[in-house]
Amino acid sequence: MRLLIIGALEGQLSTATKMAMDGGAKVAHAPSIEIAVASLRAGKGADLLLVDVMMDIAGLIAGLEAERIAIPVVACGVETNAAAAVNAIRAGAKEYIPLPPDAELIAAVIAAVARESSDFLYRDPAMERVVRMAEQIAGSEASILITGESGTGKEVIAKYVHARSKRASRPFISVNCAAIPEALLESELFGHEKGAFTGAIARRIGKFEEASGGTLLLDEISEMDVRLQAKLLRAIQERIIDRVGGTKPVPVDIRILATSNRNLNEAVREGSFREDLLFRLNVVNLKLPPLRERPGDIVALSEHFVAKYAKANGLPPRSLSAEARDALVKAPWPGNVRELENTLHRAVLLSSGDFIGPDAIVLPDGMGLSEAARAASPAAQLAQTAEAMSRALVGRTVADVERDLILDTLDHTLGNRTHAANILGISIRTLRNKLNQYADEGVHVPEPGEKRGAA
Question: Do you know which CDD domains this protein is assigned to (predicted)?
């Protein structure tokens, strides 16, 4: 665990943090926020920031977000700074530690932060198979491709793998390839030298160097531009990188994990993803099933989120009623675990009493779970489609509808008159008469082998 203490807290925190971690923490210090951010920019990473509560914590968190540096912040201050503590939490600090510091409290906070990033809650056999495979390969150096729908927990299982790897004591660095503009992603990954481009006011160490010795997660790698993929492939193969504007290669020692919510084999066929890069990344594939295919996890995760958000909002412990559990299991959850978490957070806030009933579990549009489940069922979808088609026919003449039906069927058969007549249940002569009529009216009629509108 790498800790960075920011502000005039060095004397009060250093001894306590080392005691809390039994000497297993690497503690660094920065007298100001500016120096701390410069240190992080230079690649001197940290797993947790301990910050004087009287400093500009909101500005620090904003600066970290602007630099795309994701590190949890814990505020520290004397117990009388109640208002400052509240402001720090509102600004985004994870916790508040009162001073003088208690080694056991610091250990608990650090353990909570570490657990938050590496725990993976599961109960369903479908997910158990994935986790067992993850544990089996965690100790290797193999690259892993983690696939699944958005919200299934791909980044969480990546952290789970890292925490059980030989590199667990080294950095885990994540880069969201979809969230960073294409023009900035190369610099984000490989770093840049001062003056390499407009706005490069200082050398910036990239994520490859920052992760050296540890694990680099390339989140949503399918969104990376194909031109940058070639440079990434070289970095993975040769374990060297070139900073933007640099003059010499830089060696790196990393393990690569990557995630994607798209089918990369299809992306290869479309030409938007390099096949050789896919081979390099996909040594092992962990495919996460969507939440609807792992019902055993739904109740366990729901209970976890209820406890989490009741505590976070200062509310008494609450439980899910049997009816609420049943409704949660039957819901479709297209947004997977992320949607489930948001829904249970909302339920905690909307419910009253000791139990959360199905009435408190609603989607953002106000629809209840039972309504959502019915709307997502195949029968409901067919009914909605039929209703939409019926509405589309209202106000049109029979002749117009007949013409569109005939021409659409002819389009389906690639202009084959005999096949179209058989599908429509009319004679070939009737079909030809209709087509001649449409041609006389100026409507384009496809020739055999021709798609409609291709003329």
Answer: AAA
**Distance (Å, whole) CA 441 – CA 452:** 16
- Is pLDDT above 80 for 83? yes
41, 56, 47: which is closest to 28 by C-alpha? Answer: 47
Instruction: Tell me the average pLDDT of the chain.
Output: 83
Amino acid making up residue 332? P
CA distance 338 to 261: 14
> Helix, strand, coil: what percent of the chain each, to 5?
50, 15, 35
Helices 182-190, 226-238: inter-axial angle, 10-degree rounding? 10
Contact 105, 96 (CB under 8 A): no
Contact between 109 and 97 under an 8 Å Cβ cutoff? The reply is yes
Residue 335 CB neighbour total at 10 angstroms: 18
Of the candidates 355, 383, 352, 357, the residue with the CA atom closest to the CA atom of residue 368: 357
Let me know: does 145 contact 284? Beta carbons within 8 Å.
yes
428 or 196, greater pLDDT: 428
β-pairing verdict for 250-251 and 240-241: antiparallel
**Residues 6+ positions from 301 with CB-CB distance below 8 Å:** 121, 337, 340, 341
Phi-psi region of 336 (alpha: psi -120 to 50; beta: other; left: phi over 0): left
Res. 268 pLDDT band, cuts 50 70 90: very high
CA distance 9 to 324: 48
SS3 assignment for 235-258: HHHHCEECCECCCCCEECCCEEEE
Q: What is the CA radius of gyration of the chain?
A: 29
**CA–CA dist 130, 285 (Å, integer):** 10
